[in-house]
Specification:
The chain is of the alpha/beta class and about 350 residues long. The chain folds into two domains: about 140 residues, Rossmann fold (3-Layer(aba) Sandwich), CATH 3.40.50.2000; about 160 residues, Glycogen Phosphorylase B (Rossmann fold, 3-Layer(aba) Sandwich), CATH 3.40.50.2000. Helix content is about 45%, strand content about 15%. The protein contains 15 helices and ten strands. The strands form two sheets. It has a six-stranded parallel β-sheet with strand order 7-6-5-8-9-10, with helices on both faces. It has a four-stranded parallel β-sheet with strand order 1-2-3-4. Helix 12 links the parallel strand 9 and strand 10. Helix 2 packs across helix 3, helix 8 runs parallel beside helix 9 and helix 8 packs parallel to helix 13. The protein is globular.
């Protein structure tokens, strides 16, 4: 999946650890990443290692740099649910990464406050906005043509497209079954909608999803989409149901209401703004909340027109400018992002 993103932005990786295998454990990912990064850091000797987000490889990258005495910069720092089990393992990945980081690139003021409460020095925090909004400015196009006819042939003007993604470890098993039953009920109840679900490659996800949602005429199950395809599908969708963190930030920028299929979120800014609602993984609740947005235009417009709190599309340039300042190449500290 990373290859899709690298290809989209014309990036050629200098190193490929090639650690991902089918059904591997968190133990395996962590140890393989540490050993692979040990060799990369020994040969390259960087002044700083930048890690992004909250994946297990993010934490492993920060830990490897720490073991080698190299400074760590954490992009998308300070996101917290304050519950170490939700999401699992992401909450502890980002918190432990924050403990190791020397510079914290926080996307929002809320993230900054979280870091201050954990004892991070103010001068080591820089608010940038989120880099995912930068990507949207590049990828979303009004006249976009999808690479597959099944997406091009959807009648986006006359059908309400409901985009679904669900793949979190915390949702595997019964929660994912509940989500799928709610989705099928929506498809049965609303003949005017088209549900599009790009299904994660994890067999534990695919087995459940295809078993419950397969062969329904108004449910389209696809393989994971390239980043530009996903962004443009979001832009054409009416409503988004997801347990993804990134989509919670991307969709508000596109004016799309989001129902979060989790019990907690580390992105409270959009909930406060009113463009995102956390609904959990209960079948009845998911159906009821989606039903409101499909049948009540005032409720829909209230969420769709809320203010996006996540950035202006210039987070990456702020990070680059701060690094030049941090290493003494620029004398003036750049301006932080603010709403």
């Amino acid at each position: 999946m990373l290859d899709q993103v690298l290809g989209l932005f014309g990036i050629n990786a200098d190193y490929d650890l090639n650690i991902m295998t089918n059904r591997q454990t968190l133990f395996s990912i962590t140890t393989k990443a540490l050993l692979g990064l040990r060799d990369v850091l020994a040969s390259s000797r960087p002044d700083m290692v930048l890690v992004h987000g909250d994946t297990t490889t993010t934490f492993a990258g920060a830990l490897a740099a720490f073991y080698d005495g190299i400074k760590v910069g954490h992009v998308e720092a300070g996101l917290r649910t304050h519950n170490k089990w939700l999401p699992f393992p992401e909450e502890m990945n980002r918190k432990l990464t924050g403990t190791l980081a020397d510079v914290h690139f926080a996307p929002t003021e809320t993230a900054r406050e979280n870091l201050l409460q954990e004892g991070v020095e103010p001068q080591n925090i820089f608010i940038t906005g989120n880099t995912v909004i930068d990507a949207l400015r590049t990828t979303v196009k009004r006249d976009y043509v999808f690479s597959t006819d099944v997406l091009n042939n959807i009648d986006y003007k006359n059908q309400k497209v409901v985009l679904v993604t669900a793949h979190r470890r915390e949702n595997l098993g019964k929660p994912l079954e509940n989500i799928c039953h709610a989705i099928r009920r929506l498809a049965d109840s609303y003949p005017e909608i088209k549900i599009v679900y790009p299904v994660h490659l994890n067999p534990a996800v695919r087995d459940t999803v295809f078993d419950i949602l397969g062969l329904h005429e108004r449910i389209m199950l696809l393989d994971p989409l390239d980043t530009d395809e996903m962004h443009n599908l979001m832009a054409k969708s009416y409503l988004i149901l997801t347990d993804s963190g990134g989509l919670q930030e991307e969709a508000p920028s596109l004016g799309k209401p989001v129902l979060v299929l989790r019990h907690e979120t580390e992105r409270p800014e959009a909930v406060k703004a009113g463009t995102v609602k956390v609904v959990g993984a209960g079948s009845e609740t998911i159906f009821r909340e989606a039903e409101k947005l499909l049948s009540d235009k005032d409720e829909y417009d209230r969420m769709a027109n809320a203010i996006n709190p996540y950035g202006d599309g210039h987070a990456s340039s702020r990070i680059a400018d701060f690094l030049l300042y941090y290493f003494g190449q620029n004398h003036d500290k750049p301006q932080e992002f603010c709403i």
